Amino acid sequence: MKLTDIKCKTGKPKDKPYKMFDGGGLYLEVLPTAKKLWRLKYYYLKKEKRISLGPYPLVTLAEARNAREDAKKLLLKDIDPSAARKDKKRLTSRNAENTFKAVALEWHGQNKDRWSKNYAYKVLRGLELNVFPFIGHRPISQITPPELLSECLRRPEQRGSLDIAARTRQICGQVFRYGIQTGRCEWNAAENLKGALKTKKTEHFRTINSKEIPAFLKALERNEARLFERTRRAVQLSLLTFCRPKEIRMARWEDIDFEEKIWLIPAHIMKMGKEHFVPLSRQAIAVLKEQETEVEMLNTPWVFPSQVRPREPMSDGTVNKAIKRLGYGKDMVAHGFRALARTTIREQLKYHSEIIEKQLAHKSPGPLGEAYDRTQFIDERTVMMQEWADYLDALASEGKVIKAKFGS
């Protein structure tokens, strides 16, 4: 005879445990302590097995019967209910351990040693502000693209911080990729959000044109702005090498080979994350030699150390401030030296665009673009960099400009 709620409630404890059966293997076991436990007896692979369904009355009679039916459905699929419960428990435990925050912190720890301290701090701070408060507690395997979009990416987008939204999606994508690699999730929720965010209209860095170079060079030479010599040399090297501002200010003496006339910029400094060769012209070497003489007593690893703290690199924005003091603040920024060199070398020195782009450390278009070879066109780039420096010298002296030998 099946159980009723009244029978379950009125079942009295005895000296020994006894069972009150409901049918289909379900019974309520009454212990001498008056504790009552739901249990289910079933057969799997011809072996008798039992599982606990919880205490009564916390688990009601109706809930115990539902659990029995669920177990029967598993048996019909040839699944052992006991093994299924253990698997579910393991998954729950695994999800609790593998939250997005836990995986992100592990990923950050794996990579921070190859990043600069400043970049490592920015990545972690961005996660703490824009991601962890909203999905950090969620199992990484359960986060969906709509959830990532609405909980994390729309927030900065709605307040107009489009760069932060895009950067957050990129960082989250790397965390999900690491989660896939380490078996914590099966898909990259961020990868499926390409095109879902607003983007800023492309704004090109301000720069002067080739006709304005002579006046700029004269202003730099006269130095009526009274720039520190190391700052003036940083501007000169920016123009001669057209490297990114970060690459200039983070240049280290150990990466400069004066004998081979090569500057090898480490991967963690480069925007594309790949080390890059910069051939050095005679003029660039001269600037570096002058700088070496100035800082040789400071015991600093930096080519352009901070004026106040020589054990640290010069501040971000130093070259931009120098350009402003030279009177070109409205027309030029430090990053603009790259566009100036690209246009002028292409139009005046007649070099192939691909050689110029390789010197700019830009990824080539097409399927082979990712496989950027740091030494590609190194001979041509070496000649080009010298001719670029000679071209600048000619403009500074208002002499005859030498044309390149490698035309398009």
Features:
Double Stranded RNA Binding Domain, DNA polymerase, domain 1, hpI Integrase, Chain A, 4-stranded antiparallel sheet, 3-stranded antiparallel sheet, 16 helices, 47% helix
In a nutshell, what does this entry contain?
This protein is an alpha+beta fold. It contains 16 helices and seven strands. Strands 1-2-3-4 form a four-stranded antiparallel sheet, covered by helices on one side.
Question: What is the CATH H-level superfamily of the largest domain?
Answer: Intergrase catalytic core
pLDDT < 50 stretches:
366-371, 399-408
Helix content percent band: 40-55%
Q: Count of DSSP E strands?
A: 7
Measured between the Cα atoms of the first and last residue, the distance is 96 Å
The second-level CATH architecture of the largest domain is Orthogonal Bundle
Give the CA-based shape: rod-shaped
- Strand proportion, as a percent range, falls in 5-15%
How many domains make up the 3D coordinates?
A: 3
SSE layout:
Layout: H1 5-10, E1 18-23, E2 26-30, E3 36-44, E4 47-56, H2 61-76, H3 81-97, H4 100-111, H5 117-130, H6 132-135, H7 145-158, H8 162-181, H9 213-222, H10 229-241, H11 245-249, E5 256-257, E6 262-265, E7 276-279, H12 282-295, H13 318-325, H14 336-348, H15 353-359, H16 378-396
Antiparallel strand pairs: 1-2, 2-3, 3-4, 5-6, 6-7
Explain what the structure shows:
This protein has helices spanning 5-10, 61-76, 81-97, 100-111, 117-130, 132-135, 145-158, 162-181, 213-222, 229-241, 245-249, 282-295, 318-325, 336-348, 353-359, 378-396, and strands at residues 18-23, 26-30, 36-44, 47-56, 256-257, 262-265, 276-279. The strands form two sheets. Strands 1-2-3-4 form a four-stranded antiparallel beta sheet, covered by helices on one side. It has a three-stranded antiparallel beta sheet with strand order 5-6-7. It is α+β, with helices and mostly antiparallel strands. The protein folds into three domains: 5-91, Integrase, DNA-binding domain (Double Stranded RNA Binding Domain, 2-Layer Sandwich); 100-193, Tyrosine recombinase, N-terminal domain (DNA polymerase, domain 1), CATH 1.10.150; 210-396, Intergrase catalytic core (hpI Integrase, Chain A).
